[in-house]
Amino acid sequence: MPSPTALVTGASRGLGRALATTLSERGWRLVLDGRDTARLTAAAASLPHPELVTAVPGDVADPQHRAALAGAVGPRLDLLVNNASDLGPSPLPPLAELDADEFRRVLTVNAVAPLALVQAVLPALRSARGTVVNISSDAAVEAYAGWGGYGASKAALDQLTAVLAVETPELRVYAVDPGDMATDMHQAAFPGEDISDRPAPETVVPALLALLGGDLPSGRYRATELVPAGTAR
What we know:
Blueprint: E1 5-8, H1 14-25, E2 29-34, H2 37-45, E3 53-57, H3 63-73, E4 79-82, H4 100-128, E5 131-135, H5 148-167, E6 172-177, H6 184-189, H7 205-213, E7 219-222, H8 223-226
């Protein structure tokens, strides 16, 4: 039986890389995306089974890059993880000062691009009766000063996820709030602060695996609902 195939965006660091490592350990064939070519290449080479990895550097906001990802996937896709995100300006500005072009970029990367990528690989997902996991945020549902632009983009992603689940009942479609993590993006949200007390991205991977291995209906979940906080991979 052929290895299952996963497409993971934003896989050169953070949660994307942590998930890719675990899937590689389990023998999955991986198509990985990241904007930094050198970082993505190094991440792919470090995985347990690099021979099963196709690294496709580029920006998910670029239609040509999304087409290249869809081409690398092939005719069957078991899992799409829309993990790549754009925080926006750092330090995070209040909405009264959020530049419209910066906001447009955040919306494009965090909401428009995930939907466009789903559209690009939908035949392959349907062939596998696959799973879509969109990485959301608590900023999508809570009002945090400075997080308006990013939160709005993730709220849009949540709604896209919910409607996609209704429109494609043959797939499982999830939005997952991973909670705070010690990642480069989270550090950018708190410049100059020590965020080392936040959980490592690896601690969220069991929650994603619980979705993949379970039979939960499509919907929005918090990682802590799926696996108790602090559970290690």
